[in-house]
Amino acid sequence: MQALMIIDMQNDFVDHGGRALVAQAAQTVPTIAALLAHWRQQQWPVIHVIRSHQADGCDSERFRRHAPVCVANTWGALPYPSLAPLADEMVLIKTRFSAFYNTELAQYLAANGISDIAITGTQLPNCVRGTAADGLYRDLDISVVTDACSAQNQAVASANLQDLENMGARLIHSSALLAPDQN
Prior knowledge:
The protein is an alpha/beta fold. The chain has a single domain (2-178), classed as 3-Layer(aba) Sandwich (Rossmann fold). The protein has helices at 11-14, 25-42, 105-111, 124-137, 154-167, 174-178; strands spanning 2-7, 46-51, 90-94, 116-122, 141-150, 170-172. It has a six-stranded parallel sheet. Helix 4 packs parallel to helix 5 (154-167). It is globular and about 45 Å long. The model has no long low-confidence stretch (mean pLDDT 96).
């Protein structure tokens, strides 16, 4: 079974008023929204990966402790409105790049028979890459949806996509996932 994973598509990273805007993030929203609608229509599993940090930054990566992003219970930590989770969808809170680090993700996947993940979100060199790599280390089938992931610029995005493909991730365009005969 394949799950759709949406990583860090939160106001701080997507909205122009966010504290850590990723330049390409907003342009991926329509594609991620189309994938999300498709997954919901098919009643396939969706995993929303959300960063949430304490205001003092003590649970952030060392380089962000002086200025944490996605502070719990603030506008910046909220999922981008058109990608907000539904009540029955998995919401995974994380404090590091990888969605596997100190979370219940591996247990959730095993308990639900999920061995294939289509990854979308931001940002490619950090959270998307960290999560994809950790999934590959666990022998999961990892697809990175190329037009639904973002970075600060295309050169960074392309380099990270190439690295992920060389690590064993499958690079896929959203159109292949939205095709009627998919899955």
